[in-house]
Amino acid sequence: MFCKRFTFFILCLWLCLIASAQEYSAKAKLDSAHILIGDYLNVNLEVVAPKGKPVYIPQIDEKLLEGIEAPFDWISNSKFDTILWSDHYVIKQTITITAFDTGNFIFPPIPILDADSQIVAQTNQLFFDVSTVSVDTTATIKDIKDISKVPFTFHELWLYVKEYALLILSGLLVIGLIVYAIWRYIKKKRAAKPMPAIKPKPKIKPHITALKELEKLRQKKLCEQGKTKEYYSELVDIVRIYIDGQWDIGAMEMVTSEIIESLENTEIHKEVLKRFHQACTIADLVKFAKYNPFPTDHDMAFKDCKEFVERTAEID
């Protein structure tokens, strides 16, 4: 019985130690175990750590590889990609390397450190080989291939701009100053040159415009199409605009009674003003009281409005 209990205790302790060790893990994987000389090779790094416990991953770069005399060269590191889970998180990164010598190589383990700089996990060693292109010595000698065009990448553009940034900014500044000087010179020359006098266009008298609009309204034949309300609305608005231009009276914002009251102080003949008033009254009844006038009323209203414009054209 004692032996069974002791064995169970040892088993539980062993499982706890394994669980504690598995809190942190790290692994690395190559996307290929064989490359040609000068090709790129990706090392896919994956680190698992408990949630809330930060880790430090040493960054592979050119300086570090030179320090350990690695037989391969560093190209770039991708940004860290972090995935959060309920009780842990996963960090992923891709390291790109290349080699310019043939042979079998080992990518060294990468230690993972905690906040106290203690190693909590370590990646596995990675083995890969680099070979060159085989040459058929029995084949005939061929001509050298033509120069191929390599596309200009954004990364190369950024390196170029970064290296010659001061020179580029200086050139842009000089070009800007030259453009500004030319603009100032042209502006000064134009200011010194007298502008030709522009004769103002003769102002069209209000009664000419009103008579043209009345003729257009007559040719529309709105009443014959059953559009009586539109006919009277346009008819009165034409004369209202004429009154505004002739006597500077805001007739478009006035009711009929206000317009007639304002015109009583002018030299308009009483009978002419009276007939115009009658035409405006019929128009108001049509628009606001749904009055249906006789066909003779249409012609009479048009005649009275036209006569109003013609008889008052020369009155100030």
Structure description:
With about 325 residues, the chain is of the alpha+beta class. Among the domains are: about 110 residues, Sandwich (Immunoglobulin-like); about 110 residues, no CATH class. The protein is about 45% helix and about 20% strand. It contains nine helices and ten strands. The strands form three sheets. Strands 1, 3, 4, 5 and 6 form a five-stranded antiparallel sheet that branches. A three-stranded mixed sheet has the order 2-10-7, with no helix packed on it. Helix 5 packs antiparallel against helix 6, helix 6 packs across helix 8 and helix 6 packs parallel to helix 9. The longest helix is centred in the middle third of the chain and has 28 residues. The N terminus is likely disordered.
Key structural traits:
single chain, 316 residues, alpha+beta, Immunoglobulin-like, five-stranded antiparallel beta sheet, three-stranded mixed beta sheet, 10 strands, elongated
Short description:
The chain is an alpha+beta fold. It has helices spanning 2-21, 62-67, 154-163, 165-192, 206-220, 228-247, 256-263, 270-288, 295-312, and strands at residues 25-30, 34-36, 40-50, 73-77, 81-84, 88-98, 103-107, 111-113, 119-122, 126-131.
Topology:
Elements: H1 2-21, E1 25-30, E2 34-36, E3 40-50, H2 62-67, E4 73-77, E5 81-84, E6 88-98, E7 103-107, E8 111-113, E9 119-122, E10 126-131, H3 154-163, H4 165-192, H5 206-220, H6 228-247, H7 256-263, H8 270-288, H9 295-312
Parallel strand pairs: 2-10
Antiparallel strand pairs: 1-3, 3-6, 4-6, 5-6, 7-10, 8-9
Helix pairs in contact: 5-6, 5-9, 6-8, 6-9, 8-9
